[in-house]
# Entry
Amino acid sequence: MRKIDPANAAAADVYKLMIGIIVPRPIAFVSTVDGAGLRNLAPFSYFTGCSTNPPVVCFCAAVREGPQPQKDTLENIQATGEFVVNVVSEEIAEQMNACSAEVPPEVDEFALSGLTPIESDLVKPPRVAESKIQMECRLRQVIRVSDKPGGGNLVLGDVLRFHVQESVLLGDYKIDPDALRAIGRMGGPTYARTRDRFVMERPKQR
Ligand SMILES: Cc1cc2nc3c(=O)[nH]c(=O)nc-3n(C[C@H](O)[C@H](O)[C@H](O)COP(=O)(O)O)c2cc1C
# Structure
């Protein structure tokens, strides 16, 4: 076994290690608006749910190297207290990737990618029409883990409303993974599909 102590490794190498270890990661495709209403859309794969009652999701916006350390997404969420998490399926993988370009805040990634903004019901940021599931969220808390480049800002948001396309629903609440075709991010530019699965029942409760 190789022993690796992060204290003795470059941040870029620790990043490589972590995105190879924590796999596959679901992708939060986060739409926001700034104080003037300008749209922003970007993918974040340090993403998960962290409470179901109430429903809370969280993702991490990293600190950038250079003069603009804070990502536009985080800037916007702190200004407005709102965001939408759009689920990424195979059909919109290319457009999602296009939205990860490091472009200035005034660039609208909906226009950049060709994705369609549609109004949300309860929050200002628009949803991505092509995404099969969208979650309207209100900011609960930002936890700033570190100010150093590569440091994380953990954003927690309460889900106010789920929008689920009928085509991915089995009954009222069950999601059909074959219809959703969600993708996950692996290390580097590699992605995983969610088509190869197996079933394992949990042990009986005592
Ligand atoms: C699939 C994928 C996952 C990503 N995950 C993250 C992430 O978890 N945290 C992060 O800070 N950046 C992540 N990025 C990079 C951001 O999308 C990128 O920095 C983007 O330009 C940020 O946009 P913004 O400045 O408009 O918020 C990811 C990129 C891709 C393609």
